[in-house]
Amino acid sequence: MSIFKIILNLFYPRRCPLCKMWLSVLSEIPLCKDCLGKLEFKSYEDVVGRIKLYSCSKYEGEIRELVHEFKYEKDIELGKFLAKILVSKIDLEKLKNFDLVVPIPLHKNKLEERGFNQSEIFASFISKKLNLRMKRILIKKFETLPQAELKKEDRLKNVKGVFEVRKKLNGENIILVDDVYTTGATLKEAFKILKSNGAGRIVFVTFSRPSTFY
Ligand SMILES: [Zn+2]
Question: Within this chain, do residues 33 and 77 fall inside the same structural domain, yes or no?
Answer without folding.
Answer: no
